[in-house]
Amino acid sequence: MDKRLRDIYELFDEIFSALEKKEKRLKELIAIADERIELLRSLSKGQETSEEDFLGQPIVQEIISLYRKGLGTEEIMKKTGRHKGEIELIVNLYRVRYESSSD
Fold first, then answer.
1. 102 shares a domain with 52
2. pLDDT single digits (tens) 27-66
3. pLDDT tens digits for range 11-27
4. Is the domain of 39 the same as that of 64?
5. End-to-end C-alpha distance for the chain, whole angstroms
6. Same domain, yes or no: 53 and 100
7. For residue 5, what are the CA distances in angstroms to 2, 12, 15, 19?
C-alpha cells in the first residue's frame, strides 16, 4: 500500500510539473499575442506615423534591423522565430512608408 501511495504522489508531482510548464508557455504565448495585437492596432489606425514611432515596437525594431543588414525573409524567420507573413507585413509597411518617401 505504501508503494502505491508513493507512486501516486510521484505521478501527481509529474503531472503538476507538466501543468506548470504548460502554464508558463501559455503566459508566453499570451504576451506574444498581446504584442502582435498592439502592433496591428498601431499599424491599422490609418494615421501617418513617424519612422521612430513605427520602430518603437520591439519586434519591428528587430525585424527592420535584420532587414537593413540585408537579410531575407527566410533568414529573419530563423533568427526571430516569427512567421513569414508577419515579417513580410512589417518589411513591406516599412518600405512603403519610409523607404519610398526618402527617394
1. yes
2. 988 987 887 777 677 666 655 666 666 667 788 889 999 9
3. 999 999 999 999 999 99
4. no
5. 80
6. yes
7. 5, 10, 15, 21
Q: Are 63 and 91 in contact (CB under 8 A)?
A: yes
30 and 73 share a domain? no
In the block, cell 507538466 appears at 18
Q: Is there a contact between 60 and 43 (Cβ–Cβ < 8 Å)?
A: no
pTM of whole model > 0.70? no
Half-sphere exposure of 27 (CA within 13 A, CB side): 6
d(CA 59, CA 24): 21
**Domain that residue 29 falls in:** 1-46
Read off the DSSP letter of residue 102. G
- Do 69 and 100 belong to one domain? yes
